[in-house]
């Protein structure tokens, strides 16, 4: 598998799925020329820094998606890295899910709800908005307006944001998390429609239930399996998956 994009930026890259994205990207047979790994605290991201030391293509930058000043500085750094060729792929992986007390209506607080929307919804939207000039540069260099991963915004979302899935039994509560994922899925639909004419692909990816700090030890998938599948879906971006919620194995999930 090869990604058509010359450059790719992954948020939340210091651990979990984000770190696994960086590990797999640098080892692809046709790896991107530039992998920009964004995280809240690069100084403490030792595993990520080790990868960067071994691969000159990896650039580590600071980005807390809740902070506008971080978004601004991350944009400037990325702009300096990619130059006139622009940024090909932006992967919004940073996210939170506070599982304390189950997260139902009896435990909801304004602060808890707002934090999930700040990170899981406003974060990806505002980062996408800021980085659009770089995405537009990448899209303008394509030979046609056909949608593909040469200019793509990908949001790591969850089937837990699907209203269809939530109606089924056994889905828990997690009101704050599920509501935030439903909201970002709507944003994906709207961005896909708005950016279509610019030739920028947009979709949401459900990585599966993954054994990470968020997913827990009983999850079905390893990080390696999940990210491998996600990269395959990014690589095969097309009109058919634009604006859709796609599972790591290619199944299009209902909103």
TrEMBL record:
Signal sequence residues: none
Protein name listed in UniProt: Carbonyl reductase [NADPH] 1
Pfam families linked to this entry: adh_short
GO molecular function list: oxidoreductase activity
Assigned GO CC terms: cytoplasm
Alphabetized UniProt keyword annotations: NADP, Oxidoreductase
Native organism: Elysia marginata
UniProt keyword annotation of Glycoprotein present: no
SUPFAM superfamilies: NAD(P)-binding Rossmann-fold domains
Top-level taxonomy: Eukaryota, Metazoa, Spiralia, Lophotrochozoa, Mollusca
């Amino acid at each position: 598998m090869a990604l058509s994009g010359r450059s790719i930026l992954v948020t939340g890259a210091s651990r979990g799925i984000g770190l696994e994205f960086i590990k797999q990207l640098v080892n692809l047979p046709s790896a991107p020329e530039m992998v920009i790994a964004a995280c809240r605290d690069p100084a403490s991201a030792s595993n990520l820094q080790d990868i960067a030391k071994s691969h000159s293509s990896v650039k580590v930058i600071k980005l807390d998606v809740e902070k506008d000043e971080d978004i601004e500085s991350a944009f400037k750094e990325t702009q300096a890295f990619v130059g006139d060729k622009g940024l090909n792929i932006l992967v919004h992986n940073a996210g939170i899910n506070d599982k304390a007390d189950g997260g139902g209506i009896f435990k909801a607080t304004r602060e808890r709800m707002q934090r999930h929307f700040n990170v899981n919804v406003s974060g990806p939207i505002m980062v996408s908005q800021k980085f659009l000039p770089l995405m537009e540069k990448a899209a303008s260099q394509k030979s046609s307006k056909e949608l593909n991963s040469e200019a793509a915004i990908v949001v790591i979302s969850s089937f837990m944001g699907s209203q269809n899935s939530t109606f089924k039994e056994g889905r828990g509560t997690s009101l704050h998390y599920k509501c935030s994922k439903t909201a970002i899925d709507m944003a994906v639909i709207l961005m896909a429609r708005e950016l279509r004419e610019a030739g920028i692909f947009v979709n949401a990816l459900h990585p599966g239930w993954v054994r990470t700090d968020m997913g827990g030890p009983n999850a079905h998938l390893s990080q390696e399996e999940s990210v491998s599948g996600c990269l395959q879906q990014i690589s095969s971006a097309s009109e058919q998956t634009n604006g859709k919620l796609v599972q790591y194995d290619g199944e299009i999930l209902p909103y």
